Amino acid sequence: MAYQQQQQQQQQQQQQGQGQGLSPQQLHQQQQLQLTGQYLGAPLDSITLGQLRSVVNGPQKPKQTYYDYHYEDEDTLFEEINEFYAFIEVDQLAENLRVWSSGPFQGEWTRTPLPERRAHIVNLLEDLEHRDSITRYNASRGLLYLLQGG
């Protein structure tokens, strides 16, 4: 059955080819091209060797980007503190400084003798247990200021 259909198609093509003024040799070439999927008169698709390679190899991978990054175990104190605290906490740091400045301790903390510093820290720790909430608040802010490197 399939063979009969194929012969009928060839006969129709021959009749069409004769109507187009094709010679028997051109008609035979057209039939061969039709069998291979190509048609006479239609432009043949062609690609270059480079295009074929790109299709076979797939898309090119992007080159790796190198970053100028220098790893160190620790950074400067300023950078470490910036990484530790979010920008939202800046107001809290300012409040701690305000409470510390208005507190009982006078002078520069790092130049004060160690016994005086210990005594002040003990006083702040005792104030954390005070009955008055404002005293507890000020003591906690003063300790936070010291712990934050004030």
Mind explaining what this structure looks like?
With 150 residues, the chain is mostly helical. 59% of the residues lie in helices and 0% in strands. The protein is built from seven helices and no strands.
Briefly say what this structure is:
It is built from 7 helices and no strands. By secondary structure, the chain is mostly helical. α5 (90-101) packs across α7 (133-147) and α6 (114-127) packs across α7 (133-147).
Shape: rod-shaped
Largest sheet: none
Radius of gyration (Å) = 45 Å
Based on helices, strands and strand pairing, what is the structural class? mainly alpha
Distinct helical segment count: 7
- How far is the N terminus from the C terminus? 99 Å
The mean pLDDT is 76
Keywords:
150 residues, mainly alpha, 7 helices, 0% strand, rod-shaped
List the helices and strands and how they pair.
Blueprint (H helix, E strand, L loop, with lengths): L1 H19 L3 H12 L13 H9 L19 H8 L5 H12 L12 H14 L5 H15 L3
